[in-house]
What does this fold into?
Amino acid sequence: MNVIRFKEINSTNTFLKEKYKSLENLTVVVAEHQTMGKGRLGRTWIDNDDLLFSILIKEGIENPTDYSLLIASVLLDVLGNYNPEVKWPNDIMIDEKKVCGILLEAVSLEKTECIVIGVGINVNTTSFPNNLLIKATSLKQIANQDINKDMLLNDIIKRFDIEYGKYLKNESNYLSNITKHFFLKNKEVTFYYQGKKCEGKVKGLSNSGELIVECNGNKIQLISGEVTLESVYNK
Ligand code: BTN
It folds into this structure.
């Protein structure tokens, strides 16, 4: 996979969305710092010695949301020693705290032109703003030592290349990998469904990666969005 490196950039996702036409499938952009790092749902991603990169996908883009779970499965494998779990659909958690966020974006004209998978991993971060203290952690905080970001990126890219090849051939087992390390399983969550705030218990993942939640005796499947753990964070 072709890797483009920046010391500073506005956002690795934005770069790929602007330049995708002239770049080959599986181009990776990595930056040491972003001046306009983007998080999900319009949030900003403020970095502090994080690993920040994006991967360009131009082939096999019929089901864009699959890629959040495919990259999450790759991160589960690469970060395996830290006992990571996936908080569906886009976060990797360790010790109940977020260590990595995924931002999937698409460029769509008449059809989808490309998908950009953006990943931010708290690697050597040691201080978080107060509002994130109980919610976030870094690999350094867990391992008690500095982590080599280049080596980590290499491992992720190598693994992604293999898993992407399997995914294109329908041979990837990413959903079962995620089911085995599924942070939300049996947790009570709050979410928005058809414009209404609902509460329910997470039952698992569907065959196509949707979240199954039981709410007042009904099973609801969520395609994407965000669920909040009332019990852990909001009380
Ligand atoms: C989230 O948890 O809200 C998603 C965060 C994604 C951040 C990464 S950092 C690299 C890439 N470029 C961006 O601007 N955002 C993603």
Observations:
- The longest strand covers residues 97-108.
